[in-house]
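Page 42, continued from yesterday. The earlier attempt failed because a stray header line got pasted into the input along with the sequence. Redoing it now with the clean sequence only.
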Amino acid sequence: MNITDVRVRKVAKEGKMKAVVSITIDEEFVVHDIKVIEGEKGLFIAMPSRKATDGEYRDIAHPINSRTRDRIQTLILEKYQEMLDAEPEEELEEAVE
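This time it went through. Structure tokens are written below.
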């Protein structure tokens, strides 16, 4: 499995959720609504989920093993950091114009 595209959309409002991400797998399958969350121990991802009848949230798409989850999380958090690193330059350019 190859993750062929990662698209990060930063969340504008303050809070624990920092971004919403879509990944493309093997240029054939897309998973939307992966969340980048700021937790007590740092950033992590939460897979797309929905609320069940018992009130608990259940993932509707998720990796089968921890190795794959770690790979996906690493790629997403790297892209998120790249977006943050590029952001101050964009804001600076807008201020100069």
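Notes: The two ends are 44 Å apart (CA to CA).
Reminder to self: strip header lines before submitting.
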